[in-house]
Write a structure and sequence with these properties.
- By secondary structure, the chain is an all-alpha fold.
- The protein folds into 3 domains: about 5-150, Globins (Globin-like, Orthogonal Bundle); about 160-370, Alpha Horseshoe (Serine Threonine Protein Phosphatase 5, Tetratricopeptide repeat), CATH 1.25.40; about 380-505, Serine Threonine Protein Phosphatase 5, Tetratricopeptide repeat, CATH 1.25.40.
- Helices cover about 50% and strands about 0% of the residues.
- The protein has helices spanning about 5-10, 25-30, 35-50, 60-75, 80-85, 90-95, 100-120, 125-140, 160-170, 175-180, 190-200, 205-215, 235-240, 245-250, 260-265, 265-275, 295-300, 305-315, 320-330, 335-345, 360-370, 380-385, 395-405, 415-425, 425-435, 450-455, 465-470, 485-490, 500-505, and strands at about 225, 230.
- Strands 1-2 form a two-stranded antiparallel ribbon.
- α7 (about 100-120) runs antiparallel to α8 (about 125-140) and α15 (about 260-265) runs parallel beside α17 (about 295-300).
- The longest helix is centred in the first third of the chain and has 18 residues, at about 100-120.
- Bound molecules: protoporphyrin IX containing FE.
Length: about 500
């Protein structure tokens, strides 16, 4: 938890204005996990029927309830479950696509208060929790007025910055000026405005940078290099070797801080900064608010063993989100860094699947320290077999995952890896799974075979080749799908240029 002194030392990076945590630990006092669960169910039951707030959320609130229970347990001083399982950015970032007016924040609070009253009897405790939450909820308000249209409550507000960000990246000064002049709210969201500045800094568009700073964009607000690692414009300029620009940003008030120095591997600066303010060693970036991203993270993401060793020798702690450190060091292929982190107690058990499986040395170290490619359930199938998120056929990666213990009986969305690769049209991966003994006629939860899944593949998939491989391996073309259609029936109804070949392949089986 961040102390006031730490907060002041790094306050230039922005973040939530309200204190993030309650003053004392509340978890035991409210009565533990079950009671936290009841409070959150009470909150979400009320949100479920609130026509003003409900459109802000996704269709099912089941997952939201789980996340929020984990969050509040951690917030109240219990186990850091939210950090372990869900957090990938801070609270401000997780709410930035939601249109939250002051009035909506009050509605959210009134539901929370009603739920607290229905669950707890101790009035002082209810007051304490409500008072800790009020400034936090108000601090998440990001719009001066209600959206008006319920369809604009979710995701819509971020559209306002889409074009301006493109203009800033292209250095199109005139058009951006017109936009800023015509929309006074464009620069009022500090994080979004900082992203405009960041886009201009990345390509060293000096006039654009000057315009944005002149119009009040804060030169020190960091934005995402990655979702959990935020760099200031100044740090980005140095990293991108825009030397003159970095000096210009300094002349406009940019602060060179412990996070930047750690990311850039500047040991002399890190030593000086920590020497004069030892609290900095474990300070967390206020811009990431709930997620405790300390200088150690910046040093690991920058891949600097010397800084990491110095920070540890000065008392740095790996903290609850240490799995990210291990994963990053492993994905950088940095064996020394992996060793240092594990020796300091970083947790490898939740690393999950990743490109580290391709590095035998690192894979052995991580597996020895409890890494499990089957954690969390189904993720390895998602990242290697489904073709989602523009994923390409990567049989080498799949083979390494299997070597590291990936369980081929894992079911994701009611189907096995062999169904998913067939549907994704991943020929190489299909061969890997069949070689490993995958059952070519295994039923999905709805009784469908990989062959029936192959016939659901997208237009660009090599559907005919996939069907040929499955049939050669003994696929049964007579099995019917949930609607009673055989592979042949489906093949005949396909609307694709190779439909005739596919129908012939199946007919010939
Ligand atoms: C103290 C106040 C609040 C806290 C601690 C809080 C915390 C959280 C957390 C931990 C999540 C889950 C984020 C994730 O990992 O996906 C969440 C989601 C959400 N919160 Fe809040 N929240 C607060 C106030 C509010 C307010 C005032 C609103 C709106 C009026 C709101 C609307 C939402 C919505 C719509 C989601 C779902 C986001 C999504 O589906 O991507 N929250 N909140």
């Amino acid at each position: 938890m961040i102390t006031n002194k730490q907060r002041n030392l790094v306050a230039h990076r922005g973040g939530l204005k309200a204190p993030l945590y309650p003053r004392g630990s509340l978890f035991e006092r409210v009565g533990g996990r079950d009671i936290v669960g009841e409070i959150i169910d009470g909150l979400y039951d009320r949100i479920e029927t609130d026509t003003h707030l409900r459109p802000m959320f996704v269709r099912s609130l089941e997952e939201e309830r789980k996340k929020q229970k984990a969050f509040f347990e951690e917030w109240m001083g219990g186990e850091p479950l939210y950090t372990y399982h869900y957090a990938y950015s801070g609270l401000l970032a997780r709410h930035s696509h939601i249109h939250i007016s002051g009035e909506s924040a009050n509605r959210w609070l009134s539901h929370m208060k009603a739920s607290l009253k229905a669950t707890l009897t101790n009035k002082d405790l209810i007051k304490e929790i409500t008072e800790a939450l009020r400034p936090l909820a108000q601090g998440l308000a990001n719009e001066p007025q209600d959206a008006g249209n319920p369809k604009h409550l979710r995701c819509h507000r971020v559209n306002r910055w889409r074009n301006p960000k493109e203009l800033a990246a292209k250095g199109n000064l005139q058009e951006l000026k017109v936009m800023i002049d015509s929309d006074p709210l464009l620069l009022s969201d500090r994080r979004q405005a900082a992203e405009l500045l960041q886009a201009a800094v990345r390509r060293d568009h000096r006039e654009m940078i000057t315009l944005l700073i002149d119009r009040g964009v804060d030169v020190n607000i960091p934005t995402g290099l990655e979702v959990d690692l935020l760099l200031t414009p100044h740090c980005l300029a140095i990293w991108k070797k825009h030397d003159q620009l970095s000096r210009y940003l300094e002349s406009r008030g940019a602060v060179y801080d412990i996070f930047s120095a750690s990311f850039l591997g500047d040991l002399a600066a890190v030593t000086t900064m920590c020497g004069s303010a030892p609290e900095l060693v474990n300070a967390s970036d206020p811009a990431c608010d709930f997620l405790a991203i300390t200088p150690l993270y910046h040093a690991v993401y920058g891949n600097h063993c010397s800084i990491v060793s110095y920070l540890f020798s000065s008392g740095a702690q790996v903290g609850p989100a240490s799995t990210r450190l291990v994963r990053r060091a492993a994905e950088n292929g940095n064996v020394e860094l992996v060793h240092i982190l594990l020796n300091k107690g970083a947790d490898a058990s939740r690393v999950g699947p990743g490109s580290w499986v391709k590095n035998r040395v690192i894979a052995d170290i991580l597996l020895e320290h409890g890494a499990d490619v089957n954690y969390p359930a189904g993720k390895w199938v998602w990242v290697s077999c489904t073709g989602n998120n523009s994923q390409r056929d990567n049989p080498e990666y799949l083979a390494e995952l299997l070597k590291c213990g990936a369980d081929t009986d894992t079911r994701l969305r009611g189907a096995l890896p062999v169904h998913h690769v067939a549907k994704a049209g991943h020929l190489g991966s299909l061969k890997v799974l069949l070689d490993k003994g995958a059952d070519v006629n295994a039923p999905s939860d709805s009784g469908e075979t990989p062959l029936l899944y192959a016939l659901k593949a997208g237009k660009r998939a090599a559907m005919n080749s996939i069907c040929q491989i499955l049939l050669a391996a003994g696929a049964d073309p007579t099995v019917k799908d949930a609607r009673g259609r055989s592979a042949q029936d489906i093949a005949r109804s396909l609307k694709r240029t190779d439909a005739r070949e596919i129908a012939e392949t199946i007919a010939g089986a």
